[in-house]
Amino acid sequence: MGNEKLAVLTIPNGGTESDALSDHLSKGQMNVLGALEQLSVAAPATLTGIVTVEVAQEYPGTTWRELQDYLNNPMTVEAGADVGIPYVTWRDLRLVSGGAEAAAREFTVRGKLAYPGS
What is the pTM of this model? Predict the structure, then answer.
């Protein structure tokens, strides 16, 4: 099984926050996020602001915090990039732009389940 498209998160025109991953997946689907071997976010070719990844420990997310890498740097998604999310210990995810986006921006979230034969 290759990387499967899980959702398309959108930051609306003039907005700074995307919809949440939980807006697209059921609670049961969200429960298997910990079984993912990998998760990635593919960004559109153009972005107005610097986009960071925010996560929540509850489903659906209500208290968001910036996801950081192992060096405590914010996880960012650059224009045209496909960014791997290194660990899935949270319960929900969204994207936040540092500035109002000049058009609607769509980000594709993909995942690969970690199980024998995948």
Answer: 0.88
Read off the DSSP letter of residue 26: -
| Residue 50 to residues 6, 47, 57, 59, Cα–Cα distance (Å) | 23, 7, 23, 26
69 and 86 in contact (C-beta within 8 Å)? yes
**Displacement of CA 76 from its chain's centroid (Å):** 10
What residue ranges do the domains of the chain occupy?
4-113
Tell me which of 2-6, 8-12, 33-37, 39-43 is least confident: 33-37
Q: Give, in order, the Cα–Cα distances in Å from 45 to each of 5, 36, 99.
A: 18, 26, 16
Q: What are phi and psi of 86, to 5 degrees?
A: -70, -25
